[in-house]
Amino acid sequence: MTDALNLAQERTRLFQDLKRGFIPKRVPISVGYGKEFCLLYAGHDLLEGQWNSAFWESAFDKVCQEFISDTLPVSSFRFPAAFQILESKQFVMSSSGFMQHPEVIGMEPEEYDELIKAPYDFIVSKVLPRVFAALDTDPTTRSIVFAKAMKSFLDDFAVYGGITGKLRQKYGYAISSPLSGGFTLAPLDIIADWARGFTGIVTDIRRFPEKVEAACEAVVPIALKMGIPPKPSIDGTTFIPLHMGPFMREKDFAKFYWPTFKKVVQALADSGQGVSIFVEQNWMRFIDYLYELPENTQMKFEYGDPKLVKDKLGKKHILSGFYPVTLLKTGTKEQCIDKAKELIDILAPGGRYWFDFDKSVLVPENVNLENLKAVLQYVYENTNYSDYKENTYEEQKPGVLPSREFAGHKYYKTWNEYRETHPEVTGKAEKFAAPVLQSYEETIFRFITSAL
């Protein structure tokens, strides 16, 4: 057995313990750096590096070599070619090479009824052409543009996936459960991010409260379909960044945000899937709500009181964050390590804690890199649990999956709907044709929802 494989198994065990509520051997470390950080750290021109995938492997490898993490520390979520082809207004690359996210409006306030009636069809037919200018054209051109964008995305993602697979093996990172990763949003965040924008949704809550509430319920199936992977697993992770909550009055939060968000997280947990939420901004007003989420929900906090969070949530949920990346720029090495000690003393006792910063480091210039490395080294070497004992796990029982049918949509065909108009695909052929043809529906759905 190679050293890398041994290390991968040890690291995997840390997170297996963590996700089951056991005390791990030491505090796991899971930090991440985007493609922009990696390219700049490796000395590449950012604009060229965004387009030239030949730069990606060396940039990612350098970060893996030099920054400690128990999970793969590099990532890329936005590939520029697809957005350029689509003439995206939602994600726009600046002249320096950064992907920017201006606020755009994909839905007019008088269109709520259309969204509520058929949310996915509305998104495809109305929202997409408004946020991707190249789709606002005749049907033939629209089809060609979409096909080019889809092909470019799949090509870039294949290159990225090949590189990250090699790096996981080379450096012995924790092993991810195959086909068990996901991403989704709270239903109100779907409406705000994709359709109405921050200003629009705040206004709508006051002007059309019943329509906003109905729209949140209507998009729950989309949020679940986005978030539940092909093979749900407690060792998998569906990531949910939280956006609108901290900017809402509590009575509005309780009515419009929380019920459908909790419904989505509960359904993910019931399916057997691990859930990790990024608690963006300051959620201290809503900390008692967070307690209601299913046990062992992972929560990374950007701001707030770590002592209060540990006291309120630490016996039920898995915590992280709070460490200010700004300190890595302004503090001395000793001050930076002392901050890590402080947070570890508060959050690590009893387990249910992994180390991460309050947010990702955007560019190398945002921090003193020696401070960053020193903090990671300290956590890696000084957080063994004295009361650790090796645990045995019960085999995970199959979860309760929400319906995967997603039927009744004009722009999404289930296999049963397809078969009604293609009765010739039957018998032995159906066994092979059904999963193949259905997989393409899934691929289109994933591309659309990830692009938005």
From TrEMBL:
Domain of life: Bacteria
InterPro entries in the record: UROD/MetE-like_sf, Uroporphyrinogen_deCOase
SUPFAM superfamilies, alphabetized: UROD/MetE-like
Annotated GO MF terms: uroporphyrinogen decarboxylase activity
Signal peptide coordinates: none
Coiled-coil boundaries: none
Sequence ranges assigned to domain Uroporphyrinogen decarboxylase (URO-D) in this UniProt record: 182-380
Gene3D superfamilies in UniProt: 3.20.20.210
Protein name: Uroporphyrinogen decarboxylase (URO-D)
Any single GO BP term: porphyrin-containing compound biosynthetic process
